[in-house]
Amino acid sequence: MNIIDVKNKKNGVIYVYESIDYWDKEKKQSRSKRVCIGKRDEQGNLIPSKRLTQPPVSTVIKPGPTPSTSTRHGYFGATYLFDAIGEQLGITQDLKACFPQIYKKILSVAYYLILEDRNSLLRFPKWDRTHFHPHGACISSQRSSDLFSMITEEAKERFFRLQGKRRMENEYWAYDTTSISSYSESLKQVKYGMNKDHDPLPQINLALLFGEDSGLPFYYRKLAGNISDISTLKKLLADLKQLDFGKVKLVMDRGFYSEANINALYQNNLKFLIATKVSLKFVRKELDKVRDSIKTRTNYNSIYQLYSHSTAIEWNYSQTRPRKGDVIKDTRRMYLHIYYSSEKALEHESRFNLMLDQLEAELTSGNRKPENEKQYAKYFELSDTPVRGIKIIPKQDAITRAEKDYGFFALLSNDIKDPIIALEIYRNKDLVEKAFGNLKERLNLRRTAVSSESSLDGKLFVQFIALIFMSHLKKTMADKGLFQNYTMQELLDELDVIEAFENPGKALQVGEVTKKQEGLYTNLGVDPPSTL
To answer: What SS3 state is found at 220?
Structure first.
C-alpha cells in the first residue's frame, strides 16, 4: 500500500488517496485500487474523511489465512507474539472498532517502536523489508505523519472507554504525571514548568492512569507544560465520569494532595490512597502522639524494615454548591497511616545536610539566589563586622525541629485500614514511573520530534499502544521469573529470528521453532506458531 496526493484542478484542494492491493479471484492476479482517505489543510496536515471516524459496520469474517500475493520471507516470531498479546488483551479488537481503516498501521508502528529500541521512524522502511507485521507494507516517515493526523480525539476516547472496561473493577489505579521536553515553538502546550527530569527546556506534561493488578495503562492525557499536579485531578475525575468507568480507586503521590482535591474525591464517591506531608497540622498532631512510641516490636515489619501506626481520623469535608450559593460542611472518616524508616532517616539527614552546605556556600561566596532567601533566613543568622566581615551562625533550634521528622512519612486513605496493605499498594505505584521511563527511553519520547499538534497527539497515542504491549510483556516476564535469564530485548531477539515464508495463493508458512523458543512462548501465555 502507498499514499499519494492528487490536486483537484477545479477547486485547488489536495485530496489524499491510498492505493490498496488486493487479490482478484476471477483473474487470479494481484490488483490495486485507490480509496480517498481525506484532504490536506493549508499547512499540509491530513484531514481524514468523516467515514474513517465512524464505527465499523459489523461483518462476519471467515476464519483462516489470507492468500499471499507475493513471494518473500522475513522475520516473524516477535510480531507473532505481539499479535497474540493484542488478541488476549483486546487491543486489536478495540483498535479495529475505533480506527477501522488504520488500525493495522497503528499496530505495525507500535511493534516497530518496541522492537527497534530508541530508533526513529526514519528506519521503518528498512524494518519493513525484513519483518512480517499487521500492515504488511512500508510506512515512510512522511506517511507516518499522515497516520498520526488521522487519529481523532473521539476515536481515542472510545478506545480508552473500551480498554478501561476490560480492567479489573476492584484494583487500585495509579495516577501520575511526567514532563516531556520540546524544542518546538509551534506547539501550543509547550510551556516552561517544573521539569521532572531537571531539563532546562520548555515542555508538555503527560498524565497516565495505570492498573496496579493488571499492570497495564489504559488512559493518558496531554497537558500544558506549566500545569501543576494538584490542578490536574479535577479534570481526571471529570474524564473518568465521561468514560463511564464507574467506581474507581486511585493511588497518588503527595504532589496531588490538597484540601480541594480530597473534597473532590469524597464528592465523587471515589476510594483513594494518597501520600501527604508530615508537616500538615492534622498529620503532625497525630505524629506527635506516637513519635516516641512507634518504634516497638509490635509495630515493626521485617519485610519492609520499618515501623507503622494507623489511626482513624475525621476529615472536615466541605462542598460548595454554585447554584444554591451555599457550602455543605460535614465530617468524613479517614485513615492516617504513619511510618518510620531508619533507612529513610539516613537519606533525609544526608539530603538535608547537603542543602545546608549549599546554602552556607552561597552565603559565604556572596552568590545568593533569590529562590533560597527564605531558607537562608530560616536556618542561618548573619552578622557583618568591619574586622571579621560576614559571620554565618546556624540556627540550631530550626535545624533540630527539621531533624526530628527524619524517617517519617504518611499516607491517607478513606478505604484501607491496614498500614502495610496501604504501603504495598502505594509502592506498586512505581509501575507508573517505570512506564514513563519506557516511554521516554525505549519508545523514544525523551523529546517531542513533531511540529504540529495533530502529529503530536497521534504519535503519543501510538506510543501509548506500544506501552500497553511492553507493560504486559514486562509483567508476564516478572511473574514467570524470565528476567533471571533474559532482558526484555534479549527475549524479543530470541523470538524475532523465527522466519516465515510467503508464496502467492498459499497461506503463510512458519520456519523452524526451537524447543527453547517454544518454552518462551508457553511461559508468556502464547501458543507457539504452527511450523512447516
So the answer is: strand
Do 240 and 249 meet the contact criterion of CB atoms below 8 Å apart? no
How far is Cα 105 from Cα 163, in angstroms, rounded to an integer? 19
Beta-strand runs (E) in 242-325: 249-252, 271-276, 300-301, 306-321
For 130-185, where are the E strands, in sequence order?
173-181
Percent of the chain as helix, strand, coil, to the nearest 5: 40, 25, 35
The per-residue pLDDT of the chain, averaged, comes to 82
What global pTM score does this model have? Answer: 0.71
pLDDT digits 0-9 by tens, 353-402: 999 999 999 988 888 999 999 999 999 998 877 666 678 899 999 999 88
Q: Number of helices and strands (H, E) in the chain?
A: 17, 18
Provide the CA 498 distance to its chain's centre, in angstroms.
Answer: 31
Amino acid in the structure at residue 456: L
Alpha carbons within 13 A on the beta-carbon side of 85: 26
For the ranges 36-40, 201-205, 333-337, 476-480, the maximum mean pLDDT occurs at 333-337
Here the cell at position 332 is 468524613
Closest to 317 in 3D by CA, of 305, 309, 299, 329: 329
Q: Which amino acid is at 520?
A: L
**CB count, 10 Å around CB of 53?**
18
Measure Cα distances from 471 to 114, 211, 332 in Å. Answer: 11, 11, 36
Dist CA 10 CA 334 (whole Å): 69
